[in-house]
Amino acid sequence: MLKKFARLFRDEEGISAIEYAVIGAAVLGVITAGAALLTPRITTGFQSMADQLPQ
């Protein structure tokens, strides 16, 4: 099993796949964090617009 991991790290194609997975996970984390930070502001903005609509 250890030989398979060693071969994976020596193989440049395997490293490329791992790098793409790490980059994809980082992008997903940034998008998730951004959405979590912006959600209260967006909700407040829509609520203030809804409050100004005539009944």
Quick recap of the structure?
The chain is mainly α.
Question: How would you sum up this structure, described in words?
Answer:
With 55 residues, the chain is mainly alpha-helical. The protein contains 2 helices and no strands.
Largest sheet: none
Give the distance, in angstroms, between the N- and C-terminal Cα atoms: 69 Å
**Separate helix tally:** 2
Query: In total, how many beta strands?
Result: 0
Proportion of residues in extended strands: under 5%
Work out the helicity level: over 70%
Mean pLDDT: 86
The coarse silhouette is: rod-shaped
Topology as a string of helices (H) and strands (E): HH
- Estimated radius of gyration: 22 Å
Question: Key terms for this structure?
Answer:
mainly alpha, 2 helices, single chain, 55 residues
Topology of helices and strands:
Layout: H1 2-10, H2 12-52
